[in-house]
Design a protein that fits this description.
The complex is a heterodimer of chains A (162) and B (298).
Chain A lengths: L3 E8 L2 E8 L4 H8 L18 E4 L2 E4 L5 H4 L3 E3 L12 H8 L9 H14 L5 H8 L10 H19 L1
Parallel strand pairs in A: 1-5
Antiparallel strand pairs in A: 1-2, 3-4, 3-5
Helix pairs in contact in A: 3-6
Chain B lengths: L6 E4 L3 H11 L3 E4 L5 H6 L7 E4 L9 E4 L2 E5 L4 H5 L2 H6 L1 H8 L4 H6 L2 H7 L5 H9 L2 E6 L2 E6 H4 E3 L2 E2 L6 E8 L5 E8 L9 E9 L5 E9 L9 H7 L6 H15 L10 H25 L8
Helix pairs in contact in B: 10-11, 11-12
The chains are: A alpha+beta (162), B alpha+beta (298).
């Protein structure tokens, strides 16, 4: 057994702690050590985007980040979206516009959308494509995902307005 | 797959990073943003016994303007460069090229120094560094030296870094007044490594003729190099379609046939390069024309 490190993270607003070998990815740490299995692991080499989380507010591949490198950081995962069982407006939009089928890639799309809409409440289609370009979905053909993000932006603008 | 076990050491200064490298020798690798190294670790294509993490070295994380250049610390994240108002205003070419690198989540973690040291021939920063004549500051045990980009990139994934040395900073010269620029690439999916790309930087004289032109194709050879014969053919000429076509043919001739692989044939890469060179020259010349007489870097 090789050396382990204490990892402290703020995950979705909760201060959590665990131990990990240096080689443990942030994705595996979240899933196996903290039990947060909403973050999905697909290709494990940074191509598919399923494991995308927000690290100090910026989208990051949790399979290409060592847990030990993230220690001390603020992490946001798909589990942080819904509050008391009430879906986040972005999740509602994906549901209404059928922005998912099998759902495996969805956690990465949702948190990437969250980051985009935080800094841009009215993104153009090109800006949406740019922000989500690193996510692969094998089911939807992407058109319904684009529609979902547009709908989510509308919902958030309505919330802003009232 | 998971990486083989390794020892992990976080350095808090450039000096400490160099000392750790000296301590562990050939078994150690530098870890910065990890966006090139971690895939290799996960696939077990790289099996270092020690990783020296430089990503939290605060003294290597900065963007400043000094003496006609933007200087950027090696562990500065690409996202920082992309969102820097200073870069956007003073070095629009660097700003634009940064936005073409990988996808947003890759730019969040990946560092400026990481791309340069990785020296992937299809990457944007090495080509940009060669086009601009960027200089790279390198730290070793008790030594600091400066290497110009042309000498830094030596071949496929190969640089002039000696064992035990780390990259500390890069200086990107600002573009002169009356200059224009372009950075174009083609990838099957935006954000993937380019099948072919080109960086162009041009200056026009008072009569609207090219007086300086730099053309660096990328993704089509083992390392980025200036297409000097094509550059020379532009000197003293007025921008125009037929001139740009001739320049593109010269680029193709001096470059030789690009590599063929699973992603694109040699012929296709050569075709892309010819098209991209023409478009980049047209864009750069248009920018130079509209910026004539304006302040440097604007």
């Amino acid at each position: 057994m090789s050396e382990t490190f204490t990892i402290r993270l703020s995950v979705n607003g909760c201060e959590l702690e665990g131990r990990a070998e240096a080689r443990t990815s942030l994705a595996d740490f979240l899933r196996h050590e903290l039990g947060l299995t909403g973050t999905h692991v697909g290709c494990e080499h940074g191509v598919c985007g399923a494991c995308t989380i927000l690290l100090d507010g910026a989208p990051a591949r949790s399979c290409l980040t060592l847990a030990v490198q993230a220690s001390g950081a603020r992490v946001e995962t798909v589990e942080g979206l819904a509050v008391d069982g009430e879906l986040h407006p972005i999740q509602r939009a994906f549901l209404e516009e059928r922005g998912l089928q099998c759902g495996f890639c969805t956690p990465g799309f949702l948190v990437s959308t969250l980051e985009l809409l935080r800094r841009n409440r009215e993104p153009s289609d090109d800006e949406i494509r740019d922000a989500l370009g690193g996510q692969i979905c094998r089911c939807t053909g992407y058109q319904s995902i684009l529609a979902s993000v547009r709908r989510a932006a509308e919902k958030l603008r309505e919330t802003d307005g009232g | 797959m998971k990486p083989v076990p390794f020892r992990y050491v976080a350095a808090s200064s450039a000096e400490e990073a160099v000392a750790r490298l000296a301590e562990h020798g050939d078994d150690a690798m530098i870890l910065a943003g990890g966006q090139s190294l971690l895939p290799l670790l996960n696939l077990r294509l790289a099996r270092p016994s020690v990783l020296v993490d430089v990503s939290r070295i605060a003294e290597l994380d900065y963007v400043v303007e000094s003496d006609g250049a933007l200087e950027i610390g090696a562990v500065t994240r690409k996202r920082t460069v992309e969102h820097s108002p200073l870069v956007r205003e003073r070095h629009p070419l660097l700003h634009t090229a940064t936005g073409l690198i990988g996808h947003a989540p890759i730019r969040s973690r990946g560092t400026v120094g990481g791309s340069l040291v990785q020296a992937d021939p299809a990457a944007e920063y090495p080509a940009l560094a060669v086009a601009l004549g960027a200089t790279l500051r390198v730290r070793g045990a008790g030594t600091t030296r400066t290497i110009v980009a042309d000498d830094f990139f030596q071949g496929f994934l190969a640089t002039a870094l000696e064992p035990g040395e780390i990259l500390a900073a890069v200086r990107w010269p600002l573009l002169p007044s009356r200059s224009g620029w372009s950075c174009l690439e083609f990838a099957r999916r935006p954000g993937d490594f380019a099948l072919a790309g080109v960086v162009a930087s041009v200056s026009l004289d008072d009569t609207g003729r090219y007086c300086d032109a730099r053309l660096v194709p990328f993704g089509v050879g083992p390392r980025p190099v200036r297409a000097r014969a094509a550059e020379a053919a532009l000197a003293g000429e007025r921008p125009g379609e037929s001139l740009h076509l001739r320049a593109a043919e010269r680029v193709a001739a001096e470059l030789g046939p690009p590599q063929s692989d699973a992603h694109a044939s040699s012929e296709y890469r050569a075709h892309l390069t010819r098209v991209l060179v023409q478009r980049a020259l047209a864009e750069a010349a248009a920018r130079a024309t509209s910026s004539r007489g304006r302040a440097p870097g604007v």
